[in-house]
């Protein structure tokens, strides 16, 4: 198996085709409300913003993805609720908005009280970390459609209009502060599962790089929720923010047309080294699929970078350049 280089596309998720599907889906969405509730951003940033007087309301929606299949394999579901909330909240933070409330959508093949209690445990913990309320949701029993379960949700946030951060203020020479990821978070799991399932390992096996845990438990480490970013926004002149999710560092193109030079990147978590070796995945594919140890990015003036790094447990990883995305000597785009 190691003679073959596994890729995200060959595993079933083609990022380029996904983009064309999104374009086809959204090209007819031309109606725009006027006045209170009018959109302040176009479709395609991390979160959508609408006019609400002196404030903008921010909306994001996302799910856990195929990580739920590993939860099923491990019969442990008490962390995926954190993932669901994290993927939404972090997208709000990437535009400068504070999360306020959340609604979830749980689609089931069949009902199980212990399973439901564990899902609720994760949602509760994620909401507590995010300092927001879960105000409702929907549970649907769909045995003809769902095999297992799917968990998604929508998050509402708010931000003063003058404090919205879209990336338009990013400048050449700005510093880039990277904040560590807890692990794989909630993206790229179609490739992750392909790697494990074609290897000699099972999810219940000890993780070779840390035998105190299993491969499955390592992969179920929940997505980090980056609430400390709000403190940085209050104390520093933040020019841009990015949540590193699906498509890896390619997500940075949402923030600015300028380039990113990561000359001192964060060391990837051990799980990425394991997956890369087992799947014989090349460096470029890894950085175009996973967060590779850096789950969030803050862009700000160089003189404020060390302060932001200290506040978040991150470090200065690079600077803004004219074009491209590069990690050390690896050209991402």
UniProtKB/TrEMBL annotation:
Listed CDD domains: PurM
InterPro entries found in the cross-reference section: PurM-like_C_dom (IPR010918), PurM-like_C_sf (IPR036676), PurM-like_N (IPR016188), PurM-like_N_sf (IPR036921), PurM_cligase (IPR004733)
Alphabetical UniProt keywords: ATP-binding, Cytoplasm, Ligase, Nucleotide-binding, Purine biosynthesis
Annotated PurM-like N-terminal domain residues: 45-159
Protein name: Phosphoribosylformylglycinamidine cyclo-ligase
Subcellular location, record wording: Cytoplasm
Residue intervals passing through the bilayer: none
GO molecular function: ATP binding; phosphoribosylamine-glycine ligase activity; phosphoribosylformylglycinamidine cyclo-ligase activity
GO biological process: 'de novo' IMP biosynthetic process; adenine biosynthetic process
Stretch forming the signal peptide: none
Record has Nucleotide-binding as a keyword: yes
Domain (PurM-like C-terminal) ranges: 173-324
Family: Belongs to the AIR synthase family.
Source taxonomy: Archaea, Methanobacteriati, Methanobacteriota, Stenosarchaea group, Methanomicrobia
GO terms for cellular component: cytosol
EC code: 6.3.3.1
Pathway the protein contributes to: Purine metabolism; IMP biosynthesis via de novo pathway; 5-amino-1-(5-phospho-D-ribosyl)imidazole from N(2)-formyl-N(1)-(5-phospho-D-ribosyl)glycinamide: step 2/2
Catalytic activities: 2-formamido-N(1)-(5-O-phospho-beta-D-ribosyl)acetamidine + ATP = 5-amino-1-(5-phospho-beta-D-ribosyl)imidazole + ADP + phosphate + H(+)
């Amino acid at each position: 198996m190691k003679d073959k280089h596994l890729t995200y596309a060959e595993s079933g998720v083609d990022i380029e085709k996904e983009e064309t599907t999104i374009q086809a889906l959204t090209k007819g969405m031309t109606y725009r409300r006027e006045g209170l509730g009018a959109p302040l951003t176009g479709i395609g940033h991390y979160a959508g913003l609408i006019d609400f007087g002196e404030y903008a309301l921010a909306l994001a929606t996302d799910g856990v993805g195929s990580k739920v299949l590993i939860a099923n394999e491990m019969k442990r579901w008490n962390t995926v609720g954190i993932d669901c909330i994290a993927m939404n909240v972090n997208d709000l933070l990437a535009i400068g908005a504070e999360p306020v409330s959340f609604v979830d959508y749980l689609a089931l093949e069949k009902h199980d009280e212990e399973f439901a209690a564990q899902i609720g445990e994760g949602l509760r913990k994620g909401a507590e970390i995010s300092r927001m309320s879960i105000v409702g949701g929907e549970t649907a029993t769909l045995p003809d459609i769902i095999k297992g379960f799917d968990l998604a949700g929508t998050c509402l946030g708010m931000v003063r209009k003058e404090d919205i951060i879209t990336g338009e203020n990013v400048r050449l020479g700005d510093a880039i502060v990277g904040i560590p990821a807890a692990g794989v978070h909630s993206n790229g799991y179609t490739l992750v599962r392909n790697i494990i399932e074609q290897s000699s390992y099972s999810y219940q096996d000890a993780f070779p790089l840390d035998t105190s845990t299993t491969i499955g438990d390592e992969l179920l480490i929940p997505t980090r929720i980056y609430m400390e970013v709000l403190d940085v926004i209050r104390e520093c002149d933040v020019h841009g923010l990015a949540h590193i999710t699906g498509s890896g560092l390619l997500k940075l193109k949402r923030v600015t047309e300028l380039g990113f030079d990561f000359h001192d990147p964060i060391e990837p978590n051990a799980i990425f080294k394991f997956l890369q070796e087992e799947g014989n995945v090349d460096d470029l594919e890894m950085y175009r699929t996973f967060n590779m140890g850096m789950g969030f990015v803050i862009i700000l003036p160089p003189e404020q970078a060390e302060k932001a790094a200290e506040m978040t447990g991150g470090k200065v990883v690079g600077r803004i350049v004219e074009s491209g995305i590069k990690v050390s000597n690896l050209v991402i785009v």
